[in-house]
Write a structure and sequence with these properties.
Order of helices and strands: EEEEEEHEEEEEHHEHEHEHEHHHEEE
Strand content: 25-35%
CATH architecture of the largest domain: Alpha-Beta Barrel
Largest sheet: 8 strands, mixed
CATH topology of the largest domain: TIM Barrel
Number of strands: 18
Radius of gyration: 21 Å
Distance between the termini: 6 Å
Structural class: alpha/beta
CATH superfamily of the largest domain: Metal-dependent hydrolases
Length: about 350
């Protein structure tokens, strides 16, 4: 429960009406869990994590007897764009920006917010070879953090068609090779390293093909889905790509969970996709909890929901951690965020309470 302490209105010079603290039993800071700590917020940004209640005199403090973490980050979704996220009339739409189709009023965002998700990657559906460029948005207000995120490439079987080229895996690679041989437009931006890629691949052969292509062209970014990436750790490491795993369902195959564990133990950054509305928003936290139960250490599982996911999305300088100067996007939990028995009590975005629980 949160309860406001008596507010001191005769504020000290170092405090302001836009400054407040939230004292929690545990705060998940950038350097680990800090017990009995206060998150200090100033003008919508994180100012500090203080031990106990060591904040400037006159600062209003809210008390919370549970945990406090950075807002969760979904590294892939179709939130607010499902009806506009697929154009399979052409195999290459590199100049298509999913941001242009984004509906900031979508109920998908409100549902995600209720699950503690404050930032979400919006992507075109990888059902054509190059479906376009992702964007990154906040779930409160739909603020776009990035209009140009990652170029989506699909070396996934779902991107093949029998009625238009490319019709085979080799044809898909040949088309990409032609585009990167003399790169223009978005392909030139990617080839120069100024835009990362997100390469969708599901089957082991597709993953191997994607890793080889990324290595050959020195691409940065991530693999999307890639459930067996953990069986190819040396190749993943040499590619330099991160992994955005599909959400893990309850009852996920042990082979898939073992793959996530192998990636985590190898130190490869990873996160989880949340293909709203196909997945319920709670699937993001369920994925990390299942990974933890399978053998991923809690710190790595938590980073997959926050800081690593933000870095993979290209917004790690603003969200995903409670470091000084970053956006004050945070969640108050009734207990450990990786404990599925815990619930969201309140969600703050840019220092403003956007969702409140029981008081």
């Amino acid at each position: 429960m949160i309860r406001a302490l008596a507010l001191v209105f005769a504020l000290a010079p170092s405090a302001s009406a836009q400054t407040f603290g939230v004292h929690a039993s545990k705060v998940y800071g950038p350097d680990g869990v800090v017990e009995d700590a206060t998150l200090l917020v100033e003008d919508g940004k994180v100012r500090a994590i203080a031990r106990g209640r060591d904040v400037p005199a006159g600062t209003a403090i809210l008390e919370h007897d549970g945990a406090l973490s950075a807002g969760l980050v979904a590294a892939h979704s179709y939130a607010g764009v499902l009806q506009e996220s697929l154009d399979d009339t052409r195999s290459v739409l590199a100049d298509a920006r999913i941001a242009d189709a984004f509906d900031a009023s979508s109920s998908d965002l409100r549902r995600a917010l209720r699950a503690g998700i404050t930032t979400i990657v919006i992507a075109p559906r990888p059902e054509t070879l190059v479906p376009g460029v992702t964007a990154v948005a906040k779930t409160a207000g739909g603020t776009l953090l990035r209009r140009d995120g990652q170029l989506t490439i699909a070396l996934d079987g779902r991107a093949q068609r029998i009625n238009r080229a490319p019709t085979s895996p080799m044809g898909m690679v040949a088309e990409l090779e032609a585009r990167f041989a003399k790169p223009e437009g978005v392909f030139a931006t990617v080839a120069s390293g100024r835009m990362p890629v997100m390469i969708a691949a599901t089957q082991r052969s597709e993953i191997e093909r994607a890793l080889a292509f990324a290595r050959k062209h020195h691409l940065s970014g991530s693999l999307l889905f890639a459930p067996l990436a953990g069986e190819l750790v040396p190749d993943v490491q040499s590619s330099g790509l991160a992994i955005v795993f599909a959400a893990l369902p309850i009852g996920a195959e042990s082979r898939t969970i073992d793959s996530v564990v192998a990636i985590a133990k190898a130190g490869v950054p990873f996160a989880f996709a949340l293909d709203v509305p196909f997945d319920a928003p709670d699937a993001l936290r369920i994925s990390a909890a299942l990974a933890r139960r399978g053998g991923v250490d809690p710190a790595s599982a938590m980073r997959a929901l926050t800081s690593d996911a933000a870095r993979i999305a290209g917004v790690g300088e603003r969200v995903g951690a409670l470091a000084k100067g970053m956006d004050a996007d945070f969640v108050l939990w009734s207990g450990d965020p990786l404990d599925l028995g815990s619930r969201v009590v309140a969600v703050y975005v840019d220092g403003v309470e956007r969702l409140g629980g029981a008081r």
